[in-house]
């Protein structure tokens, strides 16, 4: 199976605005870049992925992606995540990929094994594999085979909507719940939790 990973990336200096009370703009930009580079390094080691495609309106983020061997799509017009992902998926389908894995880059505990766990559940298409956030509200990873099986519905409450769309489409629905996949870095509470986990490693 040919599979592409698609990474949507907000402008590095604007992302993580909900952490503005805990981190300066410079610190948030550095954090966003670190998360992007970390995700690219993990994905580049996986032979199960044929390509990594980064979609962003941030030219610096796109340069970082290309330096890690990823393909890039420049987002333009009014920023809208689901539209950008649809456009990126079309690019992947033009290159005859069979499936796509949408993976936000704000998963600080993500491992290669997490990605492999998602891919393992994608046998016997049509299938939609979803990893919810730890609150079961958002979608932290979405893998579908074939690409375009369902429309993207990222945003508040997206986990439930993606599940419903998968079932309505006739695809097999697989939900993958792993602690490292469930923790996305959105607000100060997440940041504090990550700091505690890192302190426990020392």
**CA-based shape:** globular
Residue fraction in strands: 15-25%
How many DSSP-defined strands? 7
H/I helix tally = 7
Order of helices and strands: EHEHEHEHEEHEHH
Q: What's the rounded overall pLDDT mean?
A: 93
Distance between the termini: 40 Å
- What Rg do the Cα atoms give? 16 Å
Structural class, judged by helices and strands? alpha/beta
Which stretches are low in confidence, meaning pLDDT under 50 for 5 or more residues running?
Answer: none
Helix content class = 40-55%
Order of strands, main sheet, comes to 3-2-1-4-6-5-7
Largest sheet: 7 strands, mixed
What quaternary form is this? Answer: single chain
The gist of it:
The protein has 202 residues and is of the alpha/beta class.
What does this structure look like?
The protein starts with a strand and ends with a helix. The protein contains seven helices and seven strands; from the N terminus they run βαβαβαβαββαβαα. It has helices at 25-44, 59-67, 81-94, 112-120, 158-169, 179-182, 188-201, and strands at 3-9, 51-56, 71-74, 99-102, 127-132, 139-145, 172-175.
SSE arrangement:
Layout: E1 3-9, H1 25-44, E2 51-56, H2 59-67, E3 71-74, H3 81-94, E4 99-102, H4 112-120, E5 127-132, E6 139-145, H5 158-169, E7 172-175, H6 179-182, H7 188-201
Parallel strand pairs: 1-2, 1-4, 2-3, 5-7
Antiparallel strand pairs: 4-6, 5-6
């Amino acid at each position: 199976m040919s599979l592409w990973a698609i990474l949507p990336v907000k402008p590095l200096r604007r992302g993580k605005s909900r952490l503005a009370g805990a981190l300066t703009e410079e610190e948030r930009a550095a954090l966003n870049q670190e998360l992007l580079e970390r995700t690219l390094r993990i994905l580049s080691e996986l032979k199960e992925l044929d390509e990594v495609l980064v979609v962003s309106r941030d030219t610096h983020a796109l340069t970082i992606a290309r330096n890690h061997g990823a393909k890039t799509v420049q987002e333009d017009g009014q920023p809208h995540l689901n539209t950008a992902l649809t456009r990126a998926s079309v690019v992947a389908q033009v290159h005859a990929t069979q499936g796509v894995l949408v993976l936000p880059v704000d998963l600080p505990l993500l491992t290669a094994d997490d990605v492999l766990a998602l891919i393992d559940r994608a046998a016997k298409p049509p299938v939609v594999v979803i990893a919810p956030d730890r609150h079961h509200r958002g979608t932290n990873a979405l893998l579908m085979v074939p690409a375009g099986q369902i429309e993207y519905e990222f945003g508040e409450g997206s986990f439930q909507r993606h599940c419903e769309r998968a079932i309505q489409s006739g695809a097999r629905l697989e939900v993958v719940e792993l602690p490292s996949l469930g923790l996305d870095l959105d607000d100060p509470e997440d940041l504090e939790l990550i700091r505690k986990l890192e302190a426990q490693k020392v």
